[in-house]
Design a protein that fits this description.
Length: 79
């Protein structure tokens, strides 16, 4: 099982959660960013439907993969 960490950081005049190099929208307070990140982390645990997914990697290339929908990452919030 994959493990992912949402990190709380200062961003764009407020606070945001970050996964890798991707930032959420800015929130007015650290507490608001933590609450939003915890909601998102919780949603990572919910199984989904099997589907083909598309995503863009760090080099800008697009990929298509089949996701069975039941292999969910373990997500948490730090910072």
């Amino acid at each position: 099982m994959a493990k992912i960490h949402y990190k709380i950081v200062q961003h764009d005049g407020g606070w945001a959660y970050k996964l890798g190099d991707v930032f959420s929208e800015a929130f007015p307070s650290h507490d608001a960013a933590v609450a939003a990140a915890k909601r998102v982390a919780q949603e990572q645990h919910v199984p989904g439907n099997a589907a083909y997914i598309e995503y863009q990697d760090e080099k800008g290339a697009w990929h298509t993969e089949y996701s069975a929908g039941d292999d969910r990452p373990d997500a948490d919030v730090t910072g």
